[in-house]
Amino acid sequence: MAACGLDFGTSNTTLGTIAKGRTALLALEGSEVTIPSAIFYEPRGGSRIGRAAIGAYVEGLDGRLMRSLKSVLGSSLLNEITQVGRERLSFRQVIAGYIGAVKKRAEAACGHELTQVVHGRPVHFVDGNEAGDRKAEEALREIAHEIGFKDVIFQYEPIAAALDYEQQIDHEEIALIADIGGGTSDFSIIRLGPGHARRADRAQDILANDGVRIGGTDFDRQISLRRIMPQLGMGSPMKRKDLDVPSSFFHDLASWHSINRLYDPAVLRSINEVRRDAAKPELIDRLVKTVEERRGHALAGAVEAAKIGLSDVPETTIPLDWLERDLEVSFGRHDLAGDTADLADRIAARIGKCLAQAGINAKAVDAVFLTGGSTKLTHVREAIAASLPDARAVTGDSFGSVGLGLTIDAKRRFGH
């Protein structure tokens, strides 16, 4: 069957197909069904995607790593031209290159061409900007056609997760689906159950959809700004009274999609000019070294790994001995919760909006289905649970539920 479900995520991507009436995610990198949404461009042409892309960067190979590609959708960055290897490409072309490579891998895995797709999308690509939202979806639609898909249908990611969860229940209920991913947090309230699953049109079962552009990369960014960037001079004083070191360098360094901006020679000259007028130039030396050695993505990766690690251990340490002997930053779950409490609260606040949109109160929700990597953060789960104290919490496949649900939807829409 030529149909598939594609979950192009900020952090990871999955693609599922239908074979002999059954839906399944395809292995896209070795035996792994998830592939990091990353691409590495080699200086003399050619590219690598996924873990191979990140591995090339970590190994110190010459080239350019790009991650969190989905974050530029709906922003002015989408058509911005950037240097990758010998070419100058727009971010839109970079996204097309990545998704196109994923499609080819999927076709090799299933043994036939894929021409029909149910493509996942967040409830809002851009908060409070309907025009930007439409532009983001249209860009993804155009890219999908360019790489060979003939029929393209979009489905909200939390609705897709609901379709996956529905296969697990043998009764009817109202569920709130919380999909907290790398770039967005999306919620849907939907009636589920065996009787509903047989319906061709599920529109009447969907009671509410809402979301906010906050996800795992925002938590990474906040941790980096609070814990790491002060070690590189953020917030330190200039020699001139009442002035601090400009913060823009640090905000770019803490944001996956803007790290490469710092590698422009003109930016490095600006940082060195700041160093000359800094009251603590030894801290700015660390920033200079990070940029000169192009360690930005490695630093962001270390922050992300530390955040993930705190799901299993109470304390963690990020070594910075490549900057300075014995330099390290230690923090724990309590610090993480404190640094990112505002983000968790803003995510949970969307549940109230979703309930109001559905016209029901919290007691009417039977279950909360949690999916997306950021639902592993303890304080995020607690914030969601506090909004729906009577609902049963169900944990789905953190990285696979949306892709599986999109594939279920593809079977329903394109199936024979």
From TrEMBL:
SUPFAM superfamilies (alphabetical): Actin-like ATPase domain
Coiled coil stretches, renumbered: none
Gene3D superfamilies (UniProt xref): 3.30.420.40
Highest taxon listed in the record's lineage: Bacteria
First and last residue of the signal peptide: none
Keywords: ATP-binding, Nucleotide-binding
InterPro entries reported for this sequence: ATPase_NBD (IPR043129), Hsp_70_fam (IPR013126), YegD-like (IPR042054)
CDD domains: ASKHA_NBD_HSP70_YegD-like
Pfam families for this protein: HSP70
This protein's name: Hsp70 family protein
Organism: Flaviflagellibacter deserti
